[in-house]
Amino acid sequence: MANIEKLTTETRNPKTYKLDEMSPLEIVKVMNEEDENVIKAVRNELENIAKAIEICTEALENGGRLIYMGAGTSGRLGLLDAVECPPTFGTPDDLVIGLIAGGEKAFIKAVEGAEDSTTLGEEDLKSIGVNDKDVVIGIAASGRTPYVIYGLRYAKSIGSKTIAIACNKESEVGKETDLAIEVVTGPEVLTGSTRLKAGTAQKMVLNMISTGTMVGIGKVYQNLMVDVVQTNEKLRTRAENIVISATSCSRVEAKKYLELAGGNAKTAIVMILKNCSLEEATERLTKSRGHIRLALLN
Fold it and tell me: Per UniProt, which keywords does this protein have (predicted)?
């Protein structure tokens, strides 16, 4: 039997012993109060989160990938962060990958026993060809999920950089990795329901890691998502607005240069700000590895 009684995420919250007697307003008030602790818990780990961003940035700049793996809510959060990267940052579909115990079908319906497997994590990593250029981030609120632990163990054995995100101190997953991010959010309002505070904390940490990493590899100029993929009318308008914000040009000019640049907002911005040709803008961005600020120098 799993020994989970001593885990912070499994202990009872004294503020909610009478949860079943509370009114709806009382329930949302206590949940809101408890959620305030998430901010503080994440703040305590900012240095480690920043280190994770540095590790991931270096890996992606050198041909590696960012791979999340988890089970249940943790796995779903990793998948969610991964699938948002291509439309937001224009990344290839295989640059940021989310693995969940039980496979993609487990995103919608739990696959019983998958998280307890000591072999599935390694098998899933092998199926995507994990290698020593990659970073594998194991996400486990409890910090003891076998799927994640054994996956991280394999990743580390082949030279991948490994990071753990857990919500208990001295976690088992943390002991397997190069870097442990342990965000202790305390007992849940509903005992053991880590989709609550623990899930919120994990989402916040993943937001920071992916956003900070994308800034690091040049996917952002100022605070603009300059590699946004224009897959619908809203995003086409957003691309125009990004070019306008970055260059102070008119909408007519933004549309003109985006068309010349084949829809690439980065290239359009450099063309406008440097008053240069498509060829020169493309060359500048190539030399700067996609960093607009560097492409504008000289």
Answer: Carbohydrate metabolism, Coiled coil, Lyase
pLDDT at 1 over 50: no
- The C-alpha atoms of residue 233 and residue 210 are separated, in whole angstroms, by 25
| 145 vs 155: CA distance, rounded Å | 15
Q: Could you give the residue range(s) of every CATH 3.40.50.10490 domain in the chain?
A: 8-216
The owner of tokens 């994590």 is 121
3-class state of residue 141 by DSSP: coil
Q: Is 104 a catalytic site residue?
A: no
Where does CATH 1.10.8.1080 sit in the chain? 233-295
Q: Tell me if residue 70 falls in helix, strand or coil.
A: strand
Q: Which residues of 106-115 are buried (b: 16+ CB within 10 A; e: fewer)?
A: bbeeebeebb
Q: Of the listed 115, 172, 182, 240, which one is catalytic?
A: 115
- 3-state helix vs strand vs coil in the chain, percent to 5: 55, 10, 35
Please pick, among 10, 58, 61, 84, the residue that the annotation labels catalytic: 84
The mean pLDDT value of the chain amounts to 94
DSSP H/E element including 69: strand 66-70
- Is 84 tagged catalytic? yes
Q: Are 296 and 272 in contact (CB under 8 A)?
A: no
CATH number of 8-216: 3.40.50.10490
User: Is 71:100 a contact under the CB 8 Å cutoff?
Assistant: yes
pLDDT at 108: 82
The answer to whether the predicted template modeling score (pTM) of the entire model surpasses 0.90 is: yes
